[in-house]
Write a structure and sequence with these properties.
With 563 residues, the protein is mainly α. It folds into two domains: 334 residues, Up-down Bundle (Na+/H+ antiporter like fold), CATH 1.20.1530.20; 122 residues, Rossmann fold, CATH 3.40.50. The protein has 23 helices and seven strands. α4 crosses α7 and α5 runs antiparallel to α14. It is globular, with a radius of gyration of 26 Å. The C terminus is likely disordered.
């Protein structure tokens, strides 16, 4: 009964605070953390079943990373693997070294300084993936690089935690060899099951969606338990479980059902995080907390930007990726808690790291959400992070003028491009590296970039097109795009996309020539077909179905990525 009471109070309070956060257009994460502070021991002390509630938080983390694994494309990881590895290791190294000397300068003992500096080096995969998912940026270049170096960070953190856990029971050399052997064994198990067992088993249960969902959950539990039994984090097991199922055709069915579980249980993670903050120590630790928070919020992004800039990435990509590391990780809290249990550090260091975690998680959420606006403000200052010879494949064009500019190749854009006869008159803009790779393989004129980037918009305007077609549904991006073209290219006909009627009307008020409203067009087409089918015999329906199947086969042959 106590657990039910705790959960009820937490959910009710979180709902109220989340409502006000929504009203004032603040991140919901902030509401959840404040809920944790309020119900935690420092304020109302309402959580009596802490251990049971913490299990809910762990489930949220497990479901989140399982979904990340389900959506991980190994081909994409290969594309960004090198820069992710370099950036992940480099950022951890430089943050640890610089953070150590800052801690020493503030009067901390060497062991305390080392623990704290390592804790500052890791960023939260959970928070970043959630924010990138909410922004639909997981498929962007910076999103893929960010997820890549976060995975690298997580593996480093796990190795450090395992070594610390084994101190006093074995030599360091033995621990390292044991960890390598365990990691190799875990990967071998995943590879064998993903290739030879899971495809056949999932094919057998796929006929029943409930059994398919249950089987996916069971595989997730097997991997998390196995990972924990081998001494690793359950988060790594969850990620590997998702990755092993990713190549199968059932990821959408499994992932779609798990998303609601993820959203519910993940709330408890942020609430538990807020509850661990010692409010009574805030005044005494204010100065070091501010200094370390500023270092994480500004220093970590600068380190990532310097590394990515050196390897030839654009300043915008480097900034966006850098902003994703402007907070510390759940591994940071686990690390200092372990150090406290071993007697290496005191409770003051644990509280300091927890406060830095709360501050950086809240502020970095704003930085990631409003990364485009931040870039627009400070773009002129970022030139030092961009080399002249860029690595990013930004442009493949044969001319300086095009009759049609098509923004977004996925879905609607794919259909439009397929039916254009003279494709040499068209240039396609997209921010997904996989799509850019496909455009390149087909020989289409293309430009890599996000239309929220003013430089990309200026480049598109410079083509002086007769027709601009934007298939992206983001209202703010389309607003900026329309205003820019109306200012500098008044003769261009403008087609943009909207996902609701109100936004469509606002775009028309700006002078857009036509708003593509997929839900409206799809509904009208479906109603037209239904009317025809109702007035004709069943044979007519079957003939139309056969025609549709043939059309789909042609589409699939033209570009399987978008079907």
């Amino acid at each position: 009964m106590a657990l039910l009471f705790d959960i009820g109070i937490i959910i009710i309070l979180a709902t109220v605070l989340a409502y006000f956060a929504r009203v004032f257009k603040q991140p919901l994460i902030l509401a959840y953390i404040i809920t944790g502070v309020v119900v935690g021991p420092s304020v109302l002390n309402l959580i009596s079943s802490f251990d049971e509630t913490y299990i809910f938080a762990q489930l949220g983390v497990v479901f989140l990373l399982f979904l990340v694994g389900l959506n991980l494309n190994m081909g994409v990881l290969k594309e960004v693997g090198k820069i992710s590895l370099i950036t992940g290791i480099g950022q951890v190294f430089f943050t640890t070294v610089i953070g150590y000397f800052i801690a020493i300068a503030l009067g901390l003992q060497p062991v305390e300084a080392l623990y704290l500096s390592i804790a500052l080096a890791f960023s939260s995969t959970i928070i970043i993936v959630k924010l990138l998912s909410d922004k639909n940026d997981l498929d962007s270049l910076y999103g893929k690089i960010s997820v890549g170096f976060l995975i690298v960070q997580d593996f480093i953190a796990i190795i450090i935690l395992v070594i610390l856990s084994g101190l006093g029971t074995a030599s360091l050399e033995f621990l390292l060899l044991t960890d390598i052997a365990k990691i190799a064994l875990l990967f071998c198990i995943v590879i064998i099951f993903s290739r030879y067992v899971l495809p056949h088993f999932m094919d057998r249960v796929a006929g029943n969606t409930e059994l398919l969902f249950l089987s996916g959950i069971s595989w997730l539990m097997i991997m998390t338990l196995l990972s924990g039994y081998m001494g690793f984090s359950i988060e790594i097991g969850a990620l590997l479980a998702g990755m092993s199922l990713a190549p199968l055709p059932y990821t959408y069915e499994i992932g779609g059902r798990i998303k609601s579980l993820r959203d519910f249980f993940l709330i408890f993670f942020f609430i538990i995080l807020g509850s661990q903050m010692e409010v009574t120590l805030i005044s005494s630790l204010a100065i070091p907390v501010i200094i370390f928070s500023v270092f994480v919020l500004i220093g970590n992004p600068l380190i990532v930007m310097a590394l990515m800039g050196y390897f030839g990435y654009r300043k915008r990509t480097s900034l966006f990726a850098g902003l994703t590391v402007a907070q510390i990780s759940e591994f940071s809290l686990i690390l200092v808690a372990l150090g406290f249990s071993l007697g290496h550090i005191g409770a003051e260091i644990v509280s300091m790291v927890t406060m830095v975690g709360v501050v950086t998680i809240v502020l970095s959420s704003y930085m990631i959400i409003y990364n485009s606006k931040i870039y627009n403000k400070i773009s002129p200052l970022l030139g030092i992070f961009e080399r002249k010879n860029l690595k990013e494949d930004t442009l493949r064009a044969k001319a300086e003028k095009y009759d049609i500019v098509l923004i977004g190749y996925h879905r609607i854009g794919f259909s439009i491009m397929r039916n254009i006869k003279n494709k040499e008159d068209v240039i396609v803009a997209d921010f997904n590296p996989s799509i850019i790779k496909e455009l390149k393989s087909k020989g289409f004129n293309h430009i890599y970039g996000d239309v929220s980037d003013p430089e990309i918009i200026d480049r598109l305007v410079s083509f002086r097109p007769k027709l601009l077609v934007s298939t992206i549904p983001d209202f703010e991006d389309n607003m900026i795009l329309v205003k820019k073209f109306k200012q500098k290219s008044r003769q261009t006909l403008i087609f943009v996309t909207a996902n609701n009627a109100q936004k469509a009307l606002e775009l028309y008020n700006l002078g857009v020539d036509y708003v593509i409203f997929p839900h409206f067009l799809g509904g009208e087409k479906a109603q037209s077909l239904i009317n025809e089918f109702l007035n004709k015999e069943i044979g007519y329906l079957h003939r139309q179905r056969d025609i549709h199947i043939q059309q789909l086969k042609k589409y699939a042959g033209f570009g399987q990525l978008h079907i």
